[in-house]
Here is the input.
Amino acid sequence: MRDIKQLMEYETAGDPMNGSKWSRKTTEKIACLLNEAGIEVSKNTVGRLLRQLGFSLRVNHKELSSGTKIDRSTRDRQFSVIEDLRDQFAKKGAPVVSVDTKKKELVGNFKNQGATWREAPLLVNDHDFRSDAEAIAVPYGIHDTLANEGHVCVGQSHDTAEFAVDAISCWWSKEGMRKYPNAKKILILADAGGSNNCRARTWKYWLQKKLCNPHRITASVSHYPPGASKWNPIEHRLFSEISKNWAGIPLQSFRTMLNYIRTTKTKSGLKVSACYNRKKYLKGIKISDDQMSRIKLKPHAILPQWNYTICPKKM
Here is the structure.
């Protein structure tokens, strides 16, 4: 069981809402890899063990837009790059974090999917109108893959690149520096879109200004290909567990949200912290060519649009 769990370390995707998991490899291919490693096992046994680990058979879903044109070889090559980088950083004991924005939530007396054991049902609003919400919560998460710990920064403004980097910087100041006191590099795994968009100038600009420079740390960033966000570890290792913890509970206030995030735990030892960010973020900020030229950006040789490093600049 331990051997197959290790083999699936970088081959797992998952649903951030219900916690279901799946793999890119077939049971036959997994059995072949285990046999090559000296572990004799059949594909049927592999299937049984995968079910014990929470994996299930998945069908194709029509979710990719026609504008997303990533061929299979390029996609697989990027998965290999990410796997190699994770191994390199892990062997050196350097931090590897998976980041993303969780689904936005209406704060108020609204229905939350799921069920809880109660003598009587909780009464909530019959419609989910945004106008009836106290606010719209924007949870940005950081999952420390080596320590199996999570941090969620809950904002009430826009999901911008500045907000995302502020969340990462906050985690590093409060927790990362304490766990990795000698770290000079950090690996950030992110989706290709959203507030951590691989094409966004603002994402790279704020990483330089708010993470690398003040903390004197080099950030290597690797993005999952478009349409592959479910492979980002934070989806099935952190977000799904939070969703299960507050399932069936109306998120009536930010205090309620933060409490359920902080009390999220798993048998594997997951611990989660949370903070509330009241700052207002502006949308549509433009980064000039001059500002971009001052970013100490080093694109990687392989798939540089998805893999690059930002070094701190002398203050």
Summary: The first helix runs from residue 2 to 7. The radius of gyration is 20 Å. Residues 62-67 have pLDDT under 50 and may be disordered.
